[in-house]
Structure prediction request, 448 residues.
Amino acid sequence: MTRATRPDTLRVLLAPRLARAAEAAAPSRDGRVSAVVGLGVEVDGVRAALGEIVLVGEGDDAVEAEVVAAHGTRLSCTPLHGTAGLAVGVTARATGARARVPLGRELLGRVIDPTGAPLDGRPAPATTAWGDVEATAPSPLQRGRITARLPLGVRVLDAFTPVGRGQRIGVFAGSGVGKSSLLSMITRNNEAAVTVIALVGERGREVRQFVEDDLGPEGLARSVVVVSTSDDPPLLRLRAAFAATRIAEGFAAEGADVVLLMDSLTRVATAQREVALSAGEPPATRGFPPSVFAMLPRLLERAGPLARGSITGVYTVLVDGDDHNEPIADAVRGVLDGHVVLSRAIATAGRFPSVDVLGSISRLAPHISTPDELAAATRVRRLLAAHRDARDLVEVGAYVAGSNADVDAALRLQEPVEVFCSQGLAEPAPLPDTVRALRAIADAAGPA
Prediction:
């Protein structure tokens, strides 16, 4: 060994010992739980940043908690798996780490929880790639333009609310009108390479049913399912939405076109409300604290056309009491690139999917559809509007045939339009067939 190389060799050999010595000499980051209130714990004596993971407890009994607020020298932390078993005086230690989730193609065909742990009874995904759950949306001027169409395989959507690759669209509906059925149709029939599904606050009994019946082996093979059930603590439900988005970003970074299905944004907002209120944030609009309305665009803006691939987001919104102007629905609608409204009246009449065509819109339809497709969709919309406006006269027998050409055409073509807008759960609907059927109805209606 020469004199020139000896100091470098010594530095390499001593590096681990120096690192351990520096860690031992550093100020302690340990503290103790000073209070357990509601869904969270108060910790004193720990220096940690917002979003950092704190271990509460000793040894194997320690539980993960995330720092959600700071009050002077006291930190408010929300345990990932609830507060059961925690007590005042328990040790708390900052880890310096943030929430992470596994990434990569090894996740395809898997059902996992928001931490990446398997729920399907199989070994943990064999991936070495991990990413922070929290990430920032790309710069507006670094995004691509949305110019290519992504067929969803649902006839009424592809005809009247076409979706582009990288578009974000919301499905707004009350309870029990077919949101889950519509999502299962999109999952089976869409033409994207990868589908990432976030089931947030879902009923436990429906998870297996969705995976086995709605997805099926073929659908699951090209999908990743992130599950947090309704009995999970709010932080775990909240993390499910961000973890699924991060997984979708991982596939898009490899150049894939990804469909991200999230059911539902309302439960994500509710989880954020529970965490924020427990940390002491004051309620504002209808009991939702301001952080909820800051969180929603931070989550939604991460989907879209990215530098290489794209994330097409389909988000369900459970409207409270069928009020489509309630705070969460109103805030989400202002961020998304379109909305699909499901109607209880249409559902009770037995037509599924129960899409209210006149109440639904895609803001990118003019950019991803041909002029002929737009003209045909507009003509059929006019038929639906004419039938709606004249319904009362028709039902009481007061309408006189020949009074309005649009109403006459709407009554003549009512059955073909209803058949076109209906679709079975397992019924395929290729885009060329959908466009052909739409043009046939428009041609039969005659000129506007």
